[in-house]
Every structure is written in C-alpha cells, then in structure tokens.
Amino acid sequence: MTKIAFRSEGPASLRAWLESQAGSGEARITTRYLPKRVEEMTGGSLYWIHAHTIIGRSPLLGFEETGQGRYWVRLAPRLIPVRTSPKRAHQGWRYLEDKDAPPDLGSGEADDLEAMPPALLGELTRLGLV
Alpha carbon of 49 to those of 15, 57, 87: distances in Å? Predict the structure, then answer.
C-alpha cells in the first residue's frame, strides 16, 4: 500500500517522526476510510511517497477503529530504506503489487537519490530522468 508522506520534509524527518513513536511500540496515522483490502494488508508494508518518489516503507501492524468514525493505521515505528523509485502523488489508498515494490536497501547500502534535494528529485522524476 502506498501513502503520501504528508508534512514530511524528506526521509530524515519521516524517519525522525516514526522513531519518536517507538516508546509506545507503534506509530499511528489516522484515516477516514478503512482500505478495502484491509485483510491482506496487515503484515505487509506501507510504502511512503515523498516528492513523487517512494522513499521507504514501514511494516503494517494492523488497523484499529478510533471510536470517532475514523481508523488508525498502526505501523512499526521505523522507516526501512528502499531503492527509490518514481511514484505519482495520489489521494486515498493505492495498492502496490509485490512485483512492483522496490527492494530494500541492504545494511550500509546507500541510495544516491536520497541525498538529492527533494525539489530537484521531484523535477527529475517528473521529467522521467530518474
């Protein structure tokens, strides 16, 4: 499943927010609508999009009703770096098939695109150059 990293300035700020939630054992984001494929999503990953690029993933722990007509998406409080890949921005939930999911970066492996300023990376992605 993919989601826009709303209010995130980049991978570093997203990682910092996720890790700041580690004390409670999970990070939560709120959504109005439960994904239709919720059963198969639990145990999978939420892939984060920033500047038209998939930048990382967080393991999905599950979904829970908030009691106010909304739902929490429960995530492991970590960002697993993946090989960046272009992805258009969207509203709502989009499902990412296994064959289309970018591979994780290995320990110590760096993705040069992460060091690039987000605005430049977004423009290069828009032009189809990365």
Answer: 13, 9, 7
B/e letters for 98-127, b = 16+ CB within 10 Å, e = fewer, are eeebbeebeeeeebebbebebeebbebbee
Q: Write down the domain spans for the chain.
A: 2-126
Sign of the torsion formed by the C-alpha atoms of 18, 21, 24 and 27: negative
pLDDT in tens, 97-114: 888 888 888 765 556 655
Residue 99 makes CB contacts below 8 A (sequence gap 6+) with none
Cβ contact 103:83 at 8 Å: yes
pTM (2 decimals)? 0.80
113: amino acid identity, one letter: L
Q: Scan for tokens 């909304």, then name that residue.
A: 70
